[in-house]
């Protein structure tokens, strides 16, 4: 029963599905869509401001000594994944719609998650302080590296690279609020730490808001008429292949590099994930005005998000069970 519960969609995934359904039935149009776009920009800036305020310098200093571990995670996130995207690109172009194929490449450019990477590392008995630093710094590096990787991958596939304006907008809308929040942490950090649920609500609420706006605009442009059900199933298969290759690659590399068990767990869980919280705002900025809309482009990321949660939950409990000398997952309670 524990395994079955972990394989079922969580509450946030159900909220995402409900948001997509709402955007399909009641998309925002005209002047209301313009106001919604401005609201999402403000919500994204607030989200990154709060993330900056949450990251403590003490945590960075505590984990900075594990530089080999961090370099391994960053290599997986920003080198291995883009290479896997290029490896799967011929299949994606042959089997998927152009928007879904582009969305799959976009997944490969994103930074790692923060909350779930740390949570799964903790459950599995990994190096939690190193996971905090690796995941947090990955998100920060992604602000600069993701636009560059998007431009590189699009150039390789024969399209136009990400424009400099997109990089500038990433800095203005994401990096500056993040830095401002971090600089103000001595004054507001205590409030943010005491109200972590507020950050969670802002995080999820912003994603849902951007997803509603993106899918509503795409529905108006004919998203579901141009996206066959078979293409969605094939997207699921390619996302699963991408995740499996990343998990195998990080596990193999961390073992060959001689890391201790706790560090290997951290590398696998931090180096195999992609951030929905960072990906949705970045897509809105980098692909503003994209002819196919953002709805189809975000579908591979949403599918990958759910896959990584389900698979990593099972793996984390298996690691924990092995550490306890047990035979299965049932000795562990839910989070």
UniProtKB/TrEMBL annotation:
The chain crosses the membrane at residues 40-57, 69-88, 100-120, 132-154, 166-184, 205-224, 230-253, 265-287. Keywords: Membrane, Transmembrane, Transmembrane helix. One of its GO terms (cellular component) is plasma membrane. It comes from the Bacteria. This is Sodium/bile acid cotransporter 7. Pfam families: SBF_like.
